[in-house]
Specification:
CATH architecture: Beta Barrel
Number of strands: 8
Structural class: alpha+beta
CATH class: Mainly Beta
Low-confidence stretches: 1-15
Mean pLDDT: 84
Largest sheet: 8 strands, antiparallel
Oligomer: single chain
Strand content: 35-45%
CATH topology: Lipocalin
Distance between the termini: 47 Å
Number of helices: 2
Order of helices and strands: HEEEEEEEEH
Amino acid sequence: MKKLIFLILLLLSQPSLADWVKWAIADDGNEYYVELKSIKTLSNNKKRVWIYVNFNNANPGSNRSGKSYEEYDCKEDSYKILQAVSYSDTDLKGNTFPLEIPNQKIMYTSPSSVRELLLKNILCK
């Protein structure tokens, strides 16, 4: 019984990445995840979602992962980043570094890009 209680407490105390689903690995080795529960449908064919990426870089001192809240326009094949934070370690661990998103610029998805895959296959299918 003590082992069961310890296991439950251990699981509850750990940050969970169980809600994140890997949906792409880019050519550069970056791994992309989406939090399916976070998908919100807005008016005018727009969706909002949390995504995160593990960066495949070997540069010491570089940020190793990042999380962003993004808005996608299913009709225009575009997106904008609403909020973002980077982390010193992979899987959203380590020191955090909030990123400024001054004008929330609208960007268009490139053909066969990871964001186009997200837009066409998960958000706007």
